């Protein structure tokens, strides 16, 4: 049997619709080419990034006055960024960055396009490489229902299906 690692796939094996909500913090994703029926969106208080098969780094920060700022840095691929509250999407390609925000009054701050520094591109690629190495799970294992478990500071174990059946909702406070 030939085993394929998930991070070695060129595209997704079936269609999907994914939405990640990031209130604040940093996120690097490596999304393989999506099926035409699929969507992958990253939402923040500042706007939505529509992903089609790309590697962006997104950083969202809360400002002292209650607003938010967001910087999106592209390693490869393209995204369409749409500000919260609507407006036309802004396309970002490889090596481009977009900085924007939303004030405490809810008004969008001006969009600022730029270039991603070589150091930042290297950092994004290092994050992608380390995540791929940490996966260590083949696609066949995934199809058979295997689960991965991560441990360490700032991470949580992935619950099994049996755990989910008996789970009670938590607020995450405590």
Layout: helices, strands, pairs:
Blueprint: E1 17-21, E2 25-28, E3 39-43, E4 47-51, E5 55-62, E6 68-76, E7 79-83, E8 90-92, E9 96-102, E10 112-115, H1 118-135, H2 139-143, H3 161-165
Parallel strand pairs: 1-3
Antiparallel strand pairs: 2-5, 3-4, 4-7, 5-6, 6-9, 7-8, 9-10
Kindly describe this structure:
The protein has about 170 residues and is of the alpha+beta class. The protein has helices at about 120-135, 140-145, 160-165, and strands at about 15-20, 25-30, 40-45, 45-50, 55-60, 70-75, 80-85, 90, 95-100, 110-115. The strands form 2 sheets. It has a 5-stranded mixed β-sheet with strand order 1-3-4-7-8, with no helix packed on it. It has a 5-stranded antiparallel β-sheet with strand order 2-5-6-9-10. The longest helix is centred in the last third of the chain and has 18 residues, at about 120-135. The radius of gyration is 18 Å and the shape is globular. Mean pLDDT is about 75; it is low at about 135-174.
Précis, in short:
The protein has 174 residues and is α+β, with helices and mostly antiparallel strands. The chain is built from three helices and ten strands.
Largest sheet: 5 strands, mixed
Q: In terms of structural class, how would the helical and strand content be classed?
A: alpha+beta
- The counted number of beta strands is 10
Major sheet: arrangement of strands: 1-3-4-7-8
What is the string of helix and strand elements? EEEEEEEEEEHHH
Radius of gyration: 18 Å
Task: Enumerate how many helices there are, as a single number.
Answer: 3
What percent of residues adopt helix (DSSP H or I)? 10-25%
Globally, the shape reads globular
Low-confidence stretches: 137-174
Strand content: 25-35%
The overall average pLDDT, rounded, is 77
What is the straight-line distance between the termini?
A: 46 Å
């Amino acid at each position: 049997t030939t085993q394929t690692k998930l991070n070695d796939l060129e595209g997704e094996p079936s269609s999907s619709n994914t939405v990640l909500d990031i209130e604040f913090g940093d996120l690097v994703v490596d999304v393989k080419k999506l099926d035409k029926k699929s969507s992958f969106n990253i939402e923040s208080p500042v706007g939505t990034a529509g992903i089609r098969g790309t590697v962006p780094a997104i950083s969202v920060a809360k400002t002292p006055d209650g607003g938010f700022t967001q910087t999106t840095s592209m390693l490869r691929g393209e995204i369409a960024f749409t500000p919260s509250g609507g407006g036309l999407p802004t396309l970002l390609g490889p090596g481009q960055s977009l900085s924007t925000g939303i004030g405490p009054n809810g008004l969008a701050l001006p969009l600022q396009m730029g270039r991603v520094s070589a150091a930042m591109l290297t950092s994004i690629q290092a994050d992608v490489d380390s995540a791929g190495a940490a996966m260590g799970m083949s696609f066949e294992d995934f199809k058979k229902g295997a689960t991965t478990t991560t441990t360490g500071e700032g991470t949580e174990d992935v619950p099994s299906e049996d755990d989910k059946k008996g789970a009670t909702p938590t607020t995450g406070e405590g």
